[in-house]
Specification:
alpha/beta, Aspartate Aminotransferase, domain 2, Aspartate Aminotransferase, domain 1, 2 domains, seven-stranded mixed beta sheet, four-stranded antiparallel beta sheet, 12 helices, binds pyridoxal-5'-phosphate
Length: about 425
């Protein structure tokens, strides 16, 4: 399409855009078990208004926008406090989990090169660690050494230790890992890194907020944050269980020395000194302001409430899976991620279940190996599990005795 010669009116624009959404998943009604999060319309309203107020402000240089410097400093401080970091800890806001992870990998490479002269760096990480680490290794020229997980889907520290060599610049553990929702043995992984004085990144993109509050709600959560010696950096996505608008994550470092390897500075062009903390140049203020707004709107009490709501819904979903003999829970969830598969994959294609659910308006992630469905259960699902299970039963009935196969789908798209 080419651009129309005369513009549409404000009202026409907004109506047309709203109409484009007709076939989108109804995530505000709790129909999406992935990709979008909601802690209720009041929280969304605060996020959206704050976003709008800062949509065109630019955090590339906060000299011109001291507001964004304050917003970033306060948001990062709150997150460091959640992570049990001390006064030497420091961080930056990024555009998302992927950017936080790219920076953790890039900084590890720089540290290995500067402190130990490593020129062929590798990263040792479990097969369950997020695809973003693969992307980071690819972008920045590191070898990704994937190590198989244990029976319970958690990282296997002995096998990881065996994969480490003098060129290893980073070890990775997740809290929790995405596919099966279990927390890796962070203490054991961090100990391997500490012994060699190399970086250990904990991917808390999913769990950074929820594990923090589940622990305070009395759940038993193994140590996973800066409390653990040897952990050098942690990523926490605010646009997931922080319930803020899209485009907000934090990369937190144990100290500024470690963080210094993340930043980039050059004067090798005609435009003067150019420095940036992350991947982006121009950096929209909207997602930063929305994060500040939602965090201060919910407060500690609000996060206790919405975390409990998400956990309650996750437990209800787990009970629903366990009660259906055609299904099998992949792992008891440590936080709020629930994954299930067909008890007999030869008789029932789990992706056909996802197809049937999507026809009824429910969107789930399809993953593998092994083939399974994945539910990122959040606060909006509290009260939505019963209608979900009713539709799930209808789909299971429809598929029973048939040999209908489903479409595999993907977590992300390229077009
Ligand atoms: C979502 C997620 C990421 C990637 O974050 P994006 O915000 O999608 O870029 C990385 N790790 C884990 C565990 C995640 O859940």
């Amino acid at each position: 399409m080419t651009l129309r010669s005369t513009g549409l009116s404000h009202d026409e624009i907004i109506t047309t855009l709203q109409q484009m959404k007709v076939n989108d998943v109804r995530w505000r009604d709790g129909r999406a078990f992935t990709l979008a999060y909601s802690a209720g319309e009041d929280v969304l309203a605060v996020a959206e208004e704050a976003y709008r107020a800062f949509a065109s402000e630019n955090a590339l240089n906060t000299d011109a926008f001291p507001s964004l410097r304050i917003i970033q400093a306060q948001v990062v401080d709150i997150v460091i406090n959640w992570l049990q970091g001390d006064s030497s800890a420091a961080g930056f806001m990024t555009s998302g989990g992927t950017e936080s992870i790219l920076l953790a990998v890039k900084a590890s490479r720089e540290r290995g090169k500067k402190e130990r002269g490593v020129t062929q760096p590798n990263v040792v990480l479990p097969t369950s660690a997020h695809a973003a680490f693969e992307k980071a290794c690819y972008y920045f020229g590191l070898e990704s050494r994937r190590v198989g997980v244990s029976e319970d889907w958690r990282a296997n520290p002995e096998a990881m230790a065996a994969a480490v060599d003098d060129n290893t610049v980073l070890l990775v553990g997740s809290a929790p890992q995405y596919p099966q929702g279990v927390v890796d043995p962070i203490e054991a992984i961090a100990a391997i890194a500490a012994e060699r004085d190399i970086n250990c990144h904990v991917d808390g993109c999913m769990g950074g907020v929820s594990l923090t509050y589940l622990k305070r709600l009395g759940y038993t959560i193994p140590a996973w944050n800066f409390e653990v010696p040897g952990v050098t950096s942690i990523s926490v996505d605010l646009h997931k269980y922080g319930y803020t608008a899209k485009g907000a994550s934090v990369i937190a470092w144990r100290n500024k020395q470690l963080r210094s390897y993340q930043t980039y500075v050059t004067d090798n062009w005609l435009g003067g000194m150019y420095g940036s903390s992350g991947i982006m140049g121009t950096k929209g203020g909207g997602s930063m302001a929305a994060a500040w707004a939602v965090m201060n709107f919910l407060g500690d009490e609000g996060y206790m409430r919405v975390t409990l709501a998400a956990r309650r819904a996750a437990e209800e979903l787990v009970a629903g899976v366990l009660a259906r003999p055609q299904l099998q829970l992949v792992a008891p969830p440590d936080s709020t991620l629930v994954s299930f598969r067909a008890a007999d994959p030869a008789a029932l294609d789990v992706f056909a279940i996802a197809d049937g659910l999507w026809k009824r308006g429910w969107y789930l992630d399809r993953q593998g190996p092994p083939p399974a469905l994945h539910c990122t259960v959040n606060a909006i699902h509290d009260g939505k599990i019963a209608p979900f299970l009713a539709d799930l039963d209808a789909v299971l009935d429809e598929l029973s005795g048939s040999s209908i196969s489903g479409t595999q789908g993907a977590y992300g798209t390229i077009e």
